[in-house]
Structures are given as C-alpha cells and as structure tokens.
C-alpha cells in the first residue's frame, strides 16, 4: 500500500534512501473476501457499495450500510461519500464475508499499509524553469499564484513562515481528532517545492504562494493505510470545486486494470478516477525501487501524471554539476527512480532543498521530491486556465516538456520521458 517516495518517500520519500514498497495481495471480487496476507492490515477492510441511481439515494444507501455494518459488529473507521460510496471498518473475517453477501455491497477488500519520497532558488525550480514563468513571477516579492493544491501526505507545518497553508481546508485521516500537523517532515518538504513563498527568505516554490491544503493520511512515522489514503481522496473530491491539483508522493505495489478499479476491485483507483472526473489533476511519484512503474500504484494509473526523478545538481543541462548530497551523475535519470511507459514526465528529484517541519529547511531525494515540481507546474497552468480539465493540464505539461537531459543513463526502458519545463507557463 502507499509509502513515501523520497528523502523522507506512498507514503512518500523522506531521506536520500528510497523507501520500500509494501506488497498487496489479490483483490476480492464482488461478493467475495479472502484471508488477509502479511502485507495487509489485520482486521480492517474497505467496503465499496454498488452505485445508486441518484445522489439522494446514494447518501441514504451509505448511511444504511454503515448502520448495518455496526449492527453486525463492525467498527466503522471512515465513511466515503464523494470519491466513492462505502466505508472502511474493523471487523472479523467472518463478518467481512457476511458483509460481502449484503445486497448493496459491490466489494470487500483488505485494508493495506502504506508508507512514505536569504532566499535561494532550489536547483529543481531552476531546472524546471519555474523562475522564468510569468505566472510564477519569481522576483523576491510576495505575490501569490491563485490556485489550490492538496498535499496528501504526512500533513503540513501550518506555522511555517515560508508556506501559505489553508488550515481550514485540512483533514487528518490518520487521526481524525487531531489537526493535520506534520510531525514527520515529508509533507512539509513536498509543500515547499510546490509553493514556498517568494518572500526573500528561505526557498521559493514552483508556484509561489499557492493555497496548500494539508491532508494527512500518514503517521509521524510515515506509515498509514489505503483506507486512510482513500479518506484523503474523498476529502479532496468533496472540495473538487475548490481544489485544482493534488500531490501524492506515496504508493504501493499494484497494477492498473485499465477499468478504473472495476475489474480488479481497486477502491483507490476507483476513487481517483471519480476525483479526476470532477476536475482534479493528480501528480504522483513513480516510486524509488528502480523498477517498472507498472507494478506500483497510483503510479500505474493512466488518469494521473506519473513523475520519475532526474539527478540535477546545478539547475542546468550539460551534466556539468558535481554531486552533492548523494552519489549520482548530474543531468541523468536518478539511479533509484522507477521507469516505464506509465511514466509521463521526469523532474528534478535528487538533493532537493525545501521547507521542513518546525519552521526549518532540509535536503531530500526521491521521486517524492520530483512529483511536487509537476504539481506546482499544474497549479501554474490552472491559475491561467481555470477551466482546464486534468487531461488538458497533462497535455499542456507534456507539450511544454523538453528532451535536454542525458539518456538512457540509469533509465531502465526504451522511452525517454520529457523533462518538466515551465518557462512558458
């Protein structure tokens, strides 16, 4: 399930070393459940209901299903009303099997663990040419990009002086009684790359000053579950009229069934598809296993923008920069990054300096650090094209991308993905 893909890394990536991906077992078919494997969260399940013909009846069906589950001895943990209809609950395997036989239930699948990837212009912002973007307008003056970006991660340090955090829009899916405060650092680092303020201090982000929605799905240790992630997606979808872009620097093993989770009973895929259909663009990390991204979700999903990591140490092409925080070759495919035909763009993801928890700054590596460059780029585009669909945003980013980076280097496939270039945005 999800882990971080960065220096911190589904749930994303923290530090220089990439985090491992948790394995998933086979999904239950409609009307079926199966015993939980070692990679699953014991006693916890995600229940997806059949689609109702109308919004009102869907709401009533969810409420009735939750009441019914409680009467059967289940403890309901999350209720999903927007990205999909259903709930997550703690229950015995026998209760899960009984729930699966309920007439309104589409599927019951095990919940699974997930885990985490004076003012300076970071090398990633420089290499992506965000400092040349007229919309970003990076000049040391605090003028803010008018867009909203949700960070589904470990939370965000709302008190960081270099971030514009929209606290009222936040949600804590890991511990609902608490605010989505980042005690890990990964989410805050991601947030800074997306939108650190152009205020003359610290660092500047790709889309300075965007409103950052903290959606916490991971613990202070960078761990969580798929049900928590779906809770975050559900929150975003509820606010799809306000949120433009989502960053998910997290992931786990899995694949794209090509049918938005309907064929293989993948509730997270179904939730993301429904959220994208509501107009929200998703930028996600490819993963840090130096393997084909086709084996990792959400990276494998066609509906998202999947991002691999470039090793860039000087903010420019040519391979002239000397390595800094880790051994790698300048201007090449990062030696840890996942690859493959599911990857859409490459962006800087090695030795990226950004904001960190408790008001500080840190340098991290991972595809967790690459994805937020693209999320920031998507926010720049939405700021000037407010009606653009996720497909249009993705097409614009791909069309603007460049090929001026060394290849194949560590790339494990025969496809050279375009490098994020935002100078014209």
Q: Topology of this protein?
A:
Elements: E1 3-8, E2 11-14, E3 44-49, H1 55-71, E4 75-80, E5 86-90, H2 93-100, E6 105-110, E7 113-115, H3 123-127, E8 148-153, E9 171-172, H4 186-195, E10 211-216, E11 223-225, H5 226-238, E12 245-248, E13 250-253, H6 267-277, E14 281-285, E15 296-297, E16 305-311, E17 332-333, E18 345-348, E19 352-356, E20 360-364, H7 367-384, H8 390-400
Helix pairs in contact: 4-7, 5-6, 7-8
General description of the model:
The protein is α/β, with parallel strands linked by helices. It is 22% helix and 21% strand. The protein contains 8 helices and 20 strands. The chain has helices at residues 55-71, 93-100, 123-127, 186-195, 226-238, 267-277, 367-384, 390-400; strands at 3-8, 11-14, 44-49, 75-80, 86-90, 105-110, 113-115, 148-153, 171-172, 211-216, 223-225, 245-248, 250-253, 281-285, 296-297, 305-311, 332-333, 345-348, 352-356, 360-364. Strands 8, 9, 10, 12, 14, 16, 17 and 18 form an 8-stranded mixed sheet that branches. Strands 2-1-13-15 form a 4-stranded mixed sheet. Strand 19 (352-356) and strand 20 form a beta hairpin. Helix 4 packs parallel to helix 7 and helix 5 runs parallel beside helix 6. The two termini are 34 Å apart. Residues 7-39 have low confidence and may be disordered.
Key terms:
eight-stranded mixed sheet, alpha/beta, four-stranded mixed sheet
């Amino acid at each position: 399930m999800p882990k971080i893909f960065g220096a911190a890394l589904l749930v994303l990536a923290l530090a220089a070393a990439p985090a491992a991906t948790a394995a998933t077992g086979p999904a239950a078919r409609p009307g079926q459940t199966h015993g939980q494997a070692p990679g699953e969260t014991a006693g916890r399940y995600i229940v997806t209901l059949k689609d109702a013909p109308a919004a009102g009846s869907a709401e009533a069906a969810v409420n009735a299903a939750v009441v019914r589950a409680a009467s059967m001895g289940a403890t309901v943990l999350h209720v999903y009303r927007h990205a999909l209809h259903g709930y997550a609950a703690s229950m015995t395997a026998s209760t899960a099997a009984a729930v699966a036989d309920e007439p309104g239930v589409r599927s019951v699948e095990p919940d699974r663990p997930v885990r985490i990837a004076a003012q300076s212009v970071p090398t990633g912002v420089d290499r992506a040419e965000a400092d040349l973007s007229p919309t970003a307008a990076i000049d040391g003056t605090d003028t803010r990009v008018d867009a909203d970006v949700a960070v589904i991660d470990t939370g965000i340090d709302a008190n960081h002086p270099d971030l514009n955090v929209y606290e009222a829009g936040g949600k804590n899916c890991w511990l609902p009684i608490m605010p989505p405060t980042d005690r890990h650092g990964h989410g805050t680092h991601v947030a800074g790359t997306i939108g650190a303020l152009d205020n003359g201090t610290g660092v500047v982000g790709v889309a300075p000053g965007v409103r950052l929605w903290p959606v916490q799905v991971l613990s202070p240790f960078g761990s969580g579950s798929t049900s928590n992630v779906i809770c975050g997606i559900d929150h975003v979808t509820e606010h799809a009229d306000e949120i433009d872009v989502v960053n998910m620097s997290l992931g786990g093993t899995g694949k794209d069934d090509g049918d938005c989770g309907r064929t293989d009973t993948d509730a997270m895929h179904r939730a993301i598809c429904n959220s994208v259909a509501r107009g929200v663009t998703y930028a996600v990390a490819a993963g840090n296993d130096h393997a084909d991204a086709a084996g990792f979700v959400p990276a494998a999903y066609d509906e998202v923008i999947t991002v691999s990591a470039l090793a860039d140490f000087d903010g420019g092409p040519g391979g002239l920069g000397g390595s800094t925080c880790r051994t790698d070759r300048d201007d090449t495919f990062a030696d840890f990054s996942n690859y493959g035909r599911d990857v859409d763009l490459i962006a800087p993801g090695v030795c990226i300096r950004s904001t960190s928890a408790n008001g500080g700054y840190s340098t991290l590596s991972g595809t967790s650090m690459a994805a937020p460059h693209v999320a920031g780029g998507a926010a720049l585009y939405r700021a000037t094209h407010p009606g653009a669909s996720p497909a249009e945003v993705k097409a614009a980013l791909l069309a603007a991308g460049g090929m001026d980076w060394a290849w194949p280097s560590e790339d494990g496939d025969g496809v050279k993905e375009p490098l994020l270039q935002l100078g014209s945005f």
